[in-house]
Amino acid sequence: MLPHVTFEGVGHTYETQDGKNVCALDNINFSIKKGEFVAVLGPSGCGKSTLLRLLAGLFPATKGQVSIYDYPVAAPQLNTGIVFQKPTLLPWKNVLENVLFPIQYKQGRVSRKNKESAANMLNMVRLSEFSEHMPHQLSGGMQQRVGIARALLMDPEILIMDEPFSALDALTREQMGFELLDIWRQKPKTVLFITHSISEAVLLADKVLVLSPRPAHIIADITISLPRPRSLNTINTPEFSAYTDRIRQLIYHPNTNARSSVSGDKND
Amino acid sequence: MTKGTLNFSTSKLFPVFTLLAILPIWEVMVRMFEIPNFLLPAPSSIYQAFIAVDPSRWAIHLWATLRVAILGFCLSLVISLPLAIFMVKSKFLAKTLYPILVIIQSTPVIAIAPLLVVIMGAGEAPRLAITCLITFFPLVVSATTGMMSTPEELIELSKSLKASAVKEVWHIRLPYAVPHIFSGMKVAITLAIIGAVVAEFVAAEQGLGYFVQFSTSYFKIPQAFAALLLLSTLSLLLFKTVQLIQYLFFRWSLPKDKF
Ligand SMILES: Nc1ncnc2c1ncn2[C@@H]1O[C@H](COP(=O)(O)OP(=O)(O)OP(=O)(O)O)[C@@H](O)[C@H]1O
Ligand SMILES: [Mg+2]
Question: Out of A84, A92, A106, whose CB is closest to B161?
Answer without folding.
Answer: A106
